[in-house]
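Appendix B. Raw example, untouched.
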Amino acid sequence: MGFAIPEGARALLEYLLDAAHAAGLPTIGVGDNGNDVGFGIIEDLVRRYKPYGDVCQCPCGNGLATVTRVNILVTAAVANWGAYGIVTCLAALRHQPELLHSAATELQMLDACVRAGAADGITGRREATVDALPASVHASIVELLQALIAKVS
């Protein structure tokens, strides 16, 4: 949302992706807001079209656009769903439905995140939500993807 993060708070994953990119290794990013790992591949578009993309709400004024690049960027309304979509494709192609976790596991993961101190990225509250959507919505998405895998397997 364009608010300040602590100095030096760049994720370790970003350094790993920089090294992989420099070494010519394939990289994939998944995101939903323009500040996610990998959106550096379209940084100019994030800066131009995303609210706070070029000028954020914190004193730094650098915008929320990330500079970390990847070879392939998967965008989704909710980043988690983009990652689940990738796994769904792999599960269907390999005829291994067990690659995608269950709806029950989704609920358990969200619960574990909250217990570990995670907060929703939009609301900032420590609750079993992702991007302000309740856990039941995310579990339903997983159920839908499981049904798609079953249809092609």
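End of appendix B.
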